[in-house]
Amino acid sequence: GEKVRVENGLDDVEVMVTAGANQAFVNVVLALCDAGDPVVLFRPYYFNHLMALQMTGSASNVVLGQTRKDNMHIDMDWLRSYLGGTNEANKPKMVVAVNPCNPTGTNMSRAEVQELADLCREHDVWLVLDNTYEHFVYNGDHHCLSGTNIINIFSFSKAYGMMGWRVGYICYPKDHPLNLDAQLLKVQDTIPICPPQLSMTLASEALSLGRQWVTDQIAQLATNRAAVRSALTTALGADSVFGGEGAIYLWAKLPPSASDDSAVVDYLVREHGVTIIPGSACGAPGYIRAAYANLEDAECAEAARRLEAGLTAVANGALE
Hints:
The protein has helices at 2-6, 21-32, 47-56, 76-84, 110-122, 180-190, 197-208, 211-219, 222-236, 261-272, 297-315; strands at residues 13-18, 39-42, 62-65, 94-98, 126-130, 150-155, 168-173, 241-243, 249-253, 277-278, 287-291. It is α/β, with parallel strands linked by helices. Strands 1-7-6-5-4-2-3 form a seven-stranded mixed sheet, sandwiched between helices. The chain has a four-stranded antiparallel sheet with strand order 8-9-11-10, with helices on one face.
């Protein structure tokens, strides 16, 4: 509890340790949602969130919220209008936001997080904040909030390089009238029972290293981020490139002549030996996601060179 109180400013919360943030999200979905309950995901969404809803019976009523075209941040005007047009029979059970965002690499300001929380509270809707990339912030700070309608999800996978160790955690309101303790524990005991003790011991030791150790490691991504941003901007134009505020991703819009993002990704792999993710995997065809972590500077520079060459060829009609 000390970490979330000191680093995240979360008060009056309980903590449940899970086998990674993805399992934490499944726990939350199963605890809060009945099959068919509407849930808001913002397009482009994190694909594992959609898959969790597909597995638990709510995919047919997923509402794909809008993001702003100028910066890919959540469109608060859209959310205000949407929630204002719902009633007790059709309002969403929860609104889900990833901050910093996978796949766009955007990071919400404190004012944006507060507005999001206020809107959800006003309409008596759960707000689920996925903070997996909380440490990966380059412009400003990471912000999350606690509240009677807010659930926060965290992960050890990214900042501590513990992807295969599978440790995450849920922070949820203490003494909630819905008895969230029992609801979440019911799911936890059915799926993993608990994360492996060795993984939890390692996670505890990782926390003892302190925030500065993580900050120092993440600072080393600056060169990679600049190289990939330069490649995307040179090939597609500055107005087509978004993100770089947080997480480990940049997001880019393809030219109209090459809007088949899956075909572009396939071409880049086959002809230029570089791999990215198609935006259609995140509900946003015509876009691409490029990651800049997990490569040494020289390797990332080469990947950026290939990416720039391939996307320049695409922009010049290679797929026409």
